[in-house]
Design a protein that fits this description.
The chain is of the alpha/beta class. The protein folds into two domains: 107 residues, no CATH class; 68 residues, no CATH class. The chain is 15% helix and 43% strand. Strands 2, 3, 4, 5, 6, 7, 8, 9 and 10 form a nine-stranded mixed β-sheet that branches. Strands 1-14-11-13-12-15 form a six-stranded mixed beta barrel. It starts with a strand and ends with a strand.
């Protein structure tokens, strides 16, 4: 049985270094609030506000370390509240996506693009993927057994020796299935 731990990913933002500088000031370094499931990744102590055409969210958690692009990952429900219509995409694939205003304590950034609903995916360490015969970018089906059982379709396998085994879904998906971080799913094919 191919059991996968599940992580529910709430709205969050990744920032590139120049945007951290504009939002927090010259030479600012993000602080670690807590480590995440993926090695070297962390929830930062810092938050920002994001402002869309219809609404705003304050205290959106920054995930570190800094990235090569700035990207806001939200649920479909969040998108309605902000007044944006982002596509479901893999992280980093932001071409043609809506933009958003980011407000920090020292300044603002207007993203031209960068808002996505993150595609559900599983991080596989290379050894786990090899053991189970999983290829990078393979589309999988994952069953969860809760009081609202569901099979998640088109779960993207992401394979790297830098990853730890973990499936990531957003809050809408987690709530619909009655899941919480730490629950498990089973790869069915």
């Amino acid at each position: 049985m191919k059991q996968i731990p599940i992580g529910i990913s709430a709205r969050h933002i990744h920032l590139k270094p120049e945007h951290i500088t504009r939002l927090f000031g010259e030479g600012y370094e993000l602080t670690v609030l807590k480590d995440l499931s993926q090695p070297g990744q962390f929830a930062a102590g810092e938050t920002v506000a994001v402002v869309g055409p219809k609404g705003r969210f304050d205290k959106v958690r920054i995930l570190g370390p800094a990235r090569n692009i700035s990207q806001l990952e939200i649920s479909r429900t969040d998108a309605f509240a902000l007044g944006v219509n982002p596509p479901v995409r893999e992280s980093g694939n932001i071409e043609g996506t809506p933009g958003i205003k980011i407000v920090g304590p020292k300044g603002e950034v207007e993203l031209e693009e960068g808002v996505i609903v993150a595609a559900r995916h599983i991080h596989f360490h290379t050894e786990d993927a090899k053991k189970w015969g999983i290829e990078d970018k393979q589309r999988l089906r994952v069953r969860v057994e809760t009081d609202r059982p569901v099979i998640f379709e088109d779960v993207i396998a992401r394979v790297s020796d830098q990853f730890a085994l973990d499936m990531h879904i957003d809050t809408d998906e987690g709530n619909a299935a009655g899941l919480k971080t730490g629950d498990v799913g089973i790869i069915v094919d």
